[in-house]
Sequence to fold (249 residues):
Amino acid sequence: MKVITDLSVTSAPHRARHGWHPDWLFLTGEQGAWFDPSDLSTLFQDSAGTLPATADGDPVGRMLDKSGNGRHLFQDISAARPVLRISGGLTWLEFDGVDDRMVFAEMPNTGTTTAILGLWRTSGSATASVLGTGGSGYLRNSNGTLVKNDGGNNPQVDTPGPFPITAPSAFAVRMEDGFIEARRATGGWFSASVAGNARTDFELLGAFSQGTGALPLPMRFHGGILREGLLNESDISGGLQFLDARMTS
Fold:
């Protein structure tokens, strides 16, 4: 497992004792995004954001980024919009695995990024894209392998796994050139070290290609946090607990 040291204000370990919140990751202008379907004020049926999505079954064409970076999710194509679901005290976006996907302003390709995602795959085991870059790299799931960031020489987390995403449990992925690792709220890191480049310039949720909808992921999306840099254990644990609470009633 890779040891990450981060003494920045936004990653101060003592904060966890007082309750963790995603806002802390963006206090000084850090690049990233934060999406929270449980906040209905951020959801709209149209991509322009004029018609609120508030009821179970509403299409979602726009979802506001709560990080302050303006990376709002949107989908101009009506048929490719996920559906808002509200059931059992939980709220999520349902992606059909056929053509649903959402776009956001491109993340900077800094070479290091952390993704904390509250999602689970609802069917199938074929290759599907969790996050797309619009280029040659993407974060994907297939056949029990949690993630494969195909930015070069196939860096993927599949040992000592498998690490499936077919259960309602948040997971975190840390990526940098030649290295990728992932874990859930409990248990250790699964990691892979390779001679390749990780892609971190994500701009698509739920598919690889915005234009064709390639590699769509059938999933329930309960929320997600993207942040430049490799977050420390305190922030990883806080983020996983925060999203887990939105996935279980």
Q: What stands out?
A: The longest helix spans residues 233-244. Residues 20-33+94-244 form a domain with the Jelly Rolls fold (CATH 2.60.120.200). DSSP finds one helix and 17 strands in the chain.
